[in-house]
Amino acid sequence: MNRRDVLRASTALSATGVLVGAAGSMSAAAADHSVAAKERIGPFRVQVVMFDGVEELDFAAPYEVFSAAGFFTSRPVEVDYVRASGPAAVTAAYGTRLRGIGRWAPDEADVLVVPGGGYGRRDSPGVWAEITRGTLPRALAEAARPGLTIAALCTGVMLCSAAGLTRGRPCTTHHGARADLESQGGVVKNARVVDDGDLVTAGGITSGLELALWIVRRELGPDTALGIEAMLEYEARGTVWARHSSAR
Length: 248
Fold this sequence. Notes:
The protein is of the alpha/beta class and about 250 residues long. It is about 40% helix and about 15% strand. It has helices at about 5-15, 30-40, 55-70, 125-135, 135-145, 155-160, 180-185, 205-220, 220-230; strands at about 45-50, 75-80, 90, 95-100, 110-115, 150-155, 170, 185-190, 195, 200, 240. The strands form three sheets. Strands 2-1-5-6-10-9-11 form a seven-stranded mixed sheet, sandwiched between helices. It has a two-stranded antiparallel ribbon with strand order 3-4. Strands 7-8 form a two-stranded parallel sheet. The longest helix is centred in the N-terminal third of the chain and has 14 residues, at about 55-70. The termini are far apart.
């Protein structure tokens, strides 16, 4: 028995019968997506956007959740780091150096995850520098298409705002940026995760776990999400605001 089978078998025992809290209550939209996911063919492809100054936990938590999903679903899961300015090394907020960044190819993804970082430091690498440079916001605006879910967390949502993706739409972000998000046209909801169909946003740094777990539940099913929670010894918390299925 390989490692994947061992993890799946051992975790399934602890996941069986676990009750889902507020973050796991599925809306009609989530249910529809779960049904649709079963009908899809091919791998579930996730790309995590990288840039200098990105917050470590912002990108690492969703990356781990989506990668772990492959242990609990028969559908192959592919997770990659990508960079709009090209596949070069990235230095994160606390000095972590990451190499092996992949090419920018949102047309090949099912989910594009946009982390935050550096929003409070306008003279340093991070979200503000990316907004000023303009390359990443333009790339995000051009990436939007039917079939792609753009999922942003923390101040990464402000990159989506700069791309014009949140205007007039339900969304959330880090508490320190909510006023800015609202002033730029976002319809801010006081929720841990806000699901508006092809745009899913989440609050501050640790909410990347809830963001990824919610999308896993929506796209790959509740058993997959429960398996990940048991494996990570983490239960999704907070409220998910989700629009009904007619929104997408």
